[in-house]
Write a structure and sequence with these properties.
globular; 15 strands; seven-stranded mixed beta sheet; alpha/beta; four-stranded antiparallel beta sheet; homodimer; Aspartate Aminotransferase, domain 1; Aspartate Aminotransferase, domain 2
Chain lengths: ~350, ~350
C-alpha cells in the first residue's frame, strides 16, 4: 500500500497493528470496564499522556467518542451564555455552529481560509474562547503566543484549544490554557473512535456551577460525571476499550522516542516541504504567511495540475491527501505526523522537484 | 483462556479476531469516513442488520458511541415533556434517571429486581414508553406481548425498546415498536465502542417537530443530522470505522448461520441451564417466574457458595459473570450469546451438577 498523507484518519502509526494483535491475544477487547485490568490500561494511557504533553498537576484526562463530541460537551458544560470563536476554516466554523445550535450567544472573529488573525483587541467578555490551533481544512496554525495571550485579555474566560491535528507537536503553556482536546486518528496514528479531552479545575468548577444553576450540562458525559469516573480510572459508559489500550501503547512509544525528538523531526520535515513549495515552479504553499503555516498539516496549492500531480505521486507510492471541500480540485494536503518518516518526506520533495507537467 | 460468560463486554464472537486481522491488512482503520469504501462498509452493516432483524422498510439504522449515548439521544430527540419507564433493575433505572437529568417529566413503574411487571393499565399519556427488554443486571426479560401491547394502550406514544443484551434473539413485531437499540459488545460479541440505534419515521418526525419548536435536541448527533448522513451511508463525525466494519462481518456470519438457528440454539442452551438450576440442591434461578426468565442472560442465585462455585468453574475452564452490583457475592450471571456454543453450555451444566460443597 502507498504511504498515505491524508490528514485524518491518518495512516496508522507503524506500531499499531502489532499492538492490536497483542490486545486480542490478551483479551483486551472483552475486558470489563469495571475491572482492575481496565483501570490499569486507563491509567497507562493518561499517565503516559501527562508525561508526553508535560501536563501540570490539576489537569484531568477524559475520554469521549470523538473530537466532534467534545465540541458539543465543552460548550454544554462550560458556557452559560456566550463563547467567542476564531474562525478561519471548516472545523473552527463547525465548533462555532455547534455553540449556536446549543442556543448559546456565540460570537465569531472570522478571516478568510488560509489566513491567520490580526492581533486581538478585547471587545466583549465571553465566558469561553474557542481556538482551533490547527485548521485541518486549510493548513493554518495559530501561533502559540496568539493563543497564550488570551489569559491576559480575558482573565475570567476559559481558554479552550482544539488541537485535533497538531498534538503532540505544539508545546503549550498550560498556565495559559484551561482545556485542550484531540482525536486519536490524526497525529497519534490510531484507528478512529476516541476523543481525548483535557480539562483543568477551573473547567470542572464551571460545569459544577452551571449544574447548580440548573442549566443542562448533559447526562452520562457531563463534566462532573466524567471527572468522578476518571478519578477511579474509569468511564461512565462502556467505552472503546481497545482504542484506549492502543492509545496507551502508542503514547508509550512516543515517550520512548521523546516528544522533543518528535518535534524536531516534525520541524525538519515541514521545513523540507515548505522550502520545496516556496521555490517550486508550479506548486505553491496555500498558506503564504510563514507565521501561520502549519507544521503538521501542509497544504499545497496545485491548481489545474492537481489531478496530474496526485497521479504522479501515487505512481511512486505516495498518496497525497485531497484538498478539503471546495478545494479538492486545486489543493493537496500533506499530513506531517509521527508516522511519516523523514525518508518519506525526502522522497516526497524529490518527487515534487522532479515533477514535470505533461504538456 | 477460559470461556467467559460475563454478559458484557462479552467474550468475542469466534470470528472477530480473524476479521480484525483482515481489516488491518486492508487498511480499514485509516479509511476516510467520506470515502466510497467507507460507505460500502456502512451499507454492508446496515443491510445485513436489516436482514438479520427482519426490519421492515422505513426504519433507519444509525450509529452512536454506546447504548448509554442512545439513552441520552433518544430522550433528547423524542420527548418534549414526559416519558414512562418500566424499571426493574439497574439499567432500566439508569435510562429513567437520564430522562430526569434532561429535565423531562419522567414517570416510572417500578418492581423489585428479579420480577416482571403486572399487566399494564394506562394512566398518564406519556410521549414515550421506555422498555428495557432484557434487564442485564437481574436476568429478567419482558415478554414480547407485554412490549407489543403498548401500541394499543398508547397509540400516540413512541415505543422505545432497549434490547442491549438480547438482540438478535428476540423476534419483535416492528409494527408495535418505533425504536430499538443495542450495543455491539453483548450478544454480537464485538469489542465495545459502538451503539446501534434503529428508528422509524415517526421518531424522525417527532425529532423534527421538537427542533421546529426550538427544543434542544443536540447537535452533531441529533436525529435529523444522523438520519441525513445515514441516507448517504455516512456518519456526522469520524466514527469508529473499525467497529462498523467488524459489525458488518459478524452480522454476515450470523446471517449465514440464520437467525432462526441462532434463536433455536439460544432456547436450547437456556432450557438446559434453567432445567439444571431448577432441580439443583444448592444453586437456584434468581428469576423464579418462568414467563420473565431471560433467555440471553441467566442469573443464578448461588448464595454463600458463590465464591466456591465460581472457583470450581474457573478450574474447569469456565469463567462465570459476577452478580451485578450488590449481588456480586450471592449471584453468578451466565450470558447465553451466539459465541457460547452448545458444547460449552453442556459442560457448564455437567459441572454444576457435579459440584459438591467443600463442607
Amino acid at each position: 500500500m502507498p504511504v498515505n498523507f491524508t490528514p485524518g484518519p491518518s495512516q496508522l502509526y507503524f506500531t499499531v497493528e502489532g499492538h492490536a494483535r497483542k490486545a486480542f491475544r490478551e483479551g483486551v477487547p472483552s475486558l470489563s470496564h469495571r475491572s482492575a485490568a481496565f483501570e490499569k490500561i486507563y491509567g497507562h494511557a493518561t499517565e503516559g499522556l501527562k508525561a508526553l504533553l508535560q501536563l501540570p498537576a490539576g489537569f484531568q484526562i477524559l475520554f469521549a467518542a470523538s473530537a466532534t463530541e467534545i465540541w458539543e460537551r465543552s460548550i454544554q458544560n462550560l458556557v452559560a451564555e456566550s463563547s467567542l470563536h476564531f474562525v478561519n476554516g471548516s472545523f473552527s466554523k463547525r465548533y462555532f455552529e455547534i455553540a449556536t445550535q446549543l442556543g448559546k450567544h456565540a460570537l465569531k472573529t472570522e478571516v478568510p481560509a488560509g489566513q491567520g488573525f490580526a492581533p486581538y483587541t478585547p471587545a466583549a467578555s465571553p465566558e469561553l474562547i474557542a481556538l482551533t490551533h490547527n485548521e485541518t481544512s486549510t493548513g493554518v496554525a495559530l501561533p502559540l503566543d496568539f493563543i497564550h495571550a488570551f489569559r491576559n485579555h480575558h482573565p475570567e474566560a476559559l481558554v479552550v484549544v482544539d488541537a485535533v491535528s497538531s498534538l503532540p507537536y505544539p508545546k503549550f503553556d498550560f498556565d495559559k490554557i484551561d482545556s485542550l482536546f484531540f482525536s486519536v486518528q490524526k497525529a497519534f496514528g490510531l484507528p478512529a473512535g476516541l476523543g481525548v479531552w483535557i480539562v483543568n479545575e477551573k473547567c470542572i468548577a464551571r460545569a459544577e456551577h452551571l449544574q447548580s444553576k440548573g442549566l443542562p450540562i448533559g447526562t452520562y458525559h457531563n463534566l462532573p460525571t466524567l471527572v468522578a469516573n476518571s478519578k477511579k480510572n474509569q468511564t461512565p459508559e462502556t467505552p472503546n476499550v481497545l482504542s484506549i489500550y492502543l492509545l496507551a501503547q502508542v503514547v508509550e512509544d512516543f515517550n520512548k522516542k521523546g516528544v522533543e525528538a518528535i518535534r524536531k523531526e516534525t520541524d525538519y520535515k515541514a521545513a523540507l516541504l515548505y522550502h520545496t513549495l516556496q521555490k517550486h515552479p508550479i506548486v505553491k504553499p496555500f498558506v503564504t504567511e510563514a507565521r501561520v503555516q502549519s507544521q503538521t498539516v501542509l497544504v499545497a496549492h496545485t491548481g489545474t495540475a492537481t489531478a496530474e500531480i496526485s497521479k504522479f505521486l501515487i505512481q511512486h507510492g505516495l498518496q497525497p491527501g485531497d484538498g478539503y471541500g471546495e478545494n479538492k480540485k486545486t489543493q493537496l494536503r500533506f499530513a506531517n505526523f509521527p508516522t511519516h518518516s523523514k525518508e518519506t518526506y525526502e522522497l516526497l520533495v524529490d518527487l515534487l522537484e522532479k515533477y514535470e507537467p505533461a504538456n
